Amino acid sequence: MDNNSTTAIHPDVVVAMLPYLRRAFGNPSSIHRFGREARQAVDEAREKVAQLIGAKPSEVVFTSGGTEADNLAIKGVALAAEKKGGHIITSAIEHHAVLGPCQYLEKGGFEVTFVPVDHHGLLDPDDVKRAITDKTILISIMHANHEVGTIEPIEEIGKLAMERNIPFHTDAVQSVGKVPLNVETLRVNLLSLSAHKFYGPKGVGALYIRKGTRISPQVYGGHQELSFRAGTENVSGIVGLGQAAEIVVHKMEAEGERLCRLRDRLWERIRGTVESVRLNGHPTKRIPNTLNVSFDLVEGESLVINLDLGGIAVSAGSACTSGSVEPSHVLLAMGRSPTVAKGSVRFSLGMGNTPGEIEYTADSLKEVVRRLRSASRCSESEMAIRSHGKAVGGEA
Predict the structure, then answer these.
(1) Which of 85, 94, 137, 139 has the highest count of CB atoms within 10 angstroms of its CB?
(2) How far apart are CA 387 and CA 138, in angstroms?
């Protein structure tokens, strides 16, 4: 139940990758037969990824994953346009792969506006419009949020950006492969994606760069990837990304409907059997596999640990921040209190999940929450007795 963190690699992806881990080990930059074979595999994968997002193959640049793609997009565009201005617009609920480079650029003298969201995690395009200045050189807004699943109004923001000739980037890591999207319809200049979020291998992703977008490379030392990203290509990983893209293109619609039914069934069971719960994220404008729920009087981390003991994997935040004791910056930006935010858990479904697992999870969750709340009440009562004893008679 933690597929937004990563997905299981599809068996067909493994089969497609194996030849390039064994026999076909050539360097794509080599001109002999072994190199040409690897180059052809990379080119075919580029075509498959382009088809998935409605782009031209020449606009797809392979990276080591979504984080590198985000960094290349944000730092690359900002540094290329530095003389035109130093203002960047993003949202308060972005993944740290976007917030990190924005904060890095702030330290270097750039100005960053973090546009707020409403209680559903939805951004208002008018807020983006009001934030634009004559020094704005980049807008970066995620397509779907990694924690609550809310889908942002990217088309409207893309129209604003295009009218003002401002490069527009979207982190679509959590939506590519889950919902249909097209870079032309979205009106984006740049789009980030990652293979392991839709049944491909870890360590490989891509950045769509619209033809004519000015961007400075962030890795130097070679002319690979259209001179945007130096370094010998990860051929087997790229092949895996291409195969995963081909699989989800054909299965996306039906699988999305199936996951939506499972997700809604899980929420129906949770709110029907557990008191004092709250849905986080937009009720309808949401990717089909994601359910984020707040449980009063329970720590999300405790829920994660106790569900894990029953064989159920969920998350108390994004995978990149799961080791943090701080409440989710996404939920805080949505107006949740730190206490509510810390009591939140994300369920994110994938191809392998079944109706039986939904029922098992709901049954287990009911018992775990009851037990944790009971322990919490006992702890609170004990603390109250101790505090009262100290106040009345000193040591208790």
Answers:
(1) 139
(2) 54
